[in-house]
Design brief:
The chain crosses the membrane at residues 45-63, 75-94. Keywords: Membrane, Transmembrane, Transmembrane helix. The chain is mostly helical. The protein has one domain (1-115). The protein is 84% helix and 0% strand. It contains 4 helices and no strands.
Length: 116
Amino acid sequence: MRDLILQCAGVAGIIVALIHGVLGETKVFAKATIQPESLRTLIRLVWQAGTVAWIGGGVLLIAAPSMGSESARHWIVVTIVAVYAFAAAANAWWSRGRGFGWKALGAVVVLAVAGY
């Protein structure tokens, strides 16, 4: 059962990452005025680097049960929980607790810990 919970955490992490990437492009950068243009491109790429990292974390959470190593499972969960928990805390602080993002990121953390 804990393997399934950990894999659900991975799927949820990938979904959260994809929502992050889409909202960044359609809501944040569609309205943002950033000059010079090269800086705008850099900020977009850094934003999407987070998206790619979270997708990678989700993939690792999905794969962890099939690795057959408790040590690998431990370090994958610890690392991904730290990454998602930091993102959740930052999002909660930025949105003053009103946003959806920190709750979704927090749900991934809870699932990953439960599947540990």
